[in-house]
Amino acid sequence: GENVEQHPSTLSVQEGDSAVIKCTYSDSASNYFPWYKQELGKRPQLIIDIRSNVGEKKDQRIAVTLNKTAKHFSLHITETQPEDSAVYFCAAISSGSARQLTFGSGTQLTVLP
Amino acid sequence: NAGVTQTPKFQVLKTGQSMTLQCAQDMNHEYMSWYRQDPGMGLRLIHYSVGAGITDQGEVPNGYNVSRSTTEDFPLRLLSAAPSQTSVYFCASSWGQSGETQYFGPGTRLLVL
Asked: A5-31 pLDDT, tens per residue?
């Protein structure tokens, strides 16, 4: 099955700086890669996703890049703000008949004022 | 729309007891899933369903049963609770059968003594 590894597990940045979170996946057939943000005590919420036919996708201050050859994808947050502090999860879904979402272990992002 | 709802919000069980976690969605989504979230381990898929009458196992199905008699409801049953099942349980749903763009419920926090 799919295996998703996520790094780093914790990340602290100064307000206004950029943050980058990286994930690798094992199944070359995976074709959908979402990122979820989870605030303390809340449910995970989808913030951005990318499909395997696209190399990069942006939405305001967040962007995701995908390198299919290396089987890794990254989340980039620019001009970080205190409200960006949360746990971020990457995930991957394979293109097979068993459509299961496999999550990384999460990154605790802290934006320091 | 209420989106994805879960009950109860919090439950304490004794070892060996059984219970059902409820999940419902009012978005006419075909795909529904159950995850457990443990510290440092991200979200792990327990069971999922791509439509009424169709269910399948995820990564960690042992000790749990599901059924999908209607499009709206996807209950998760713990057959004989064990302390290892202490966790936060999230239900999610998405349109179609792809498992993409999943919307999560608020979660159920379960403590097994």
From this structure: 999 999 999 999 999 999 999 999 899
- The CA-based angle B23-B28-B34, given to 5 degrees, is 30
Instruction: For chain A, state the CA radius of gyration.
Output: 14
Mean per-residue pLDDT, A53-73: 95
Put simply, whether B58 touches A (Cβ < 8 Å) is yes
Confidence band for B111, pLDDT divided at 50, 70 and 90: very high
Nearest to A85 by CA among A32, A37, A17: A37
CB-CB neighbors (< 8 A) of A49 in chain B: 100-101
Per the CB < 8 A criterion, the answer to whether A112 and A12 are in contact is yes
Quick one: CA dihedral B83, A99, A59, B4, positive or negative? negative
Contact status, residue B91 vs residue B34, Cβ threshold 8 Å? yes
B50–A103 C-beta distance less than 8 A: no
C-alpha to C-alpha distances, A41 to A17, B15, B55, B80, nearest whole angstrom:
26, 25, 29, 27
Distance, in Å, from the CA atom of B57 to the CA atom of A112, rounded to the nearest integer, reads 41
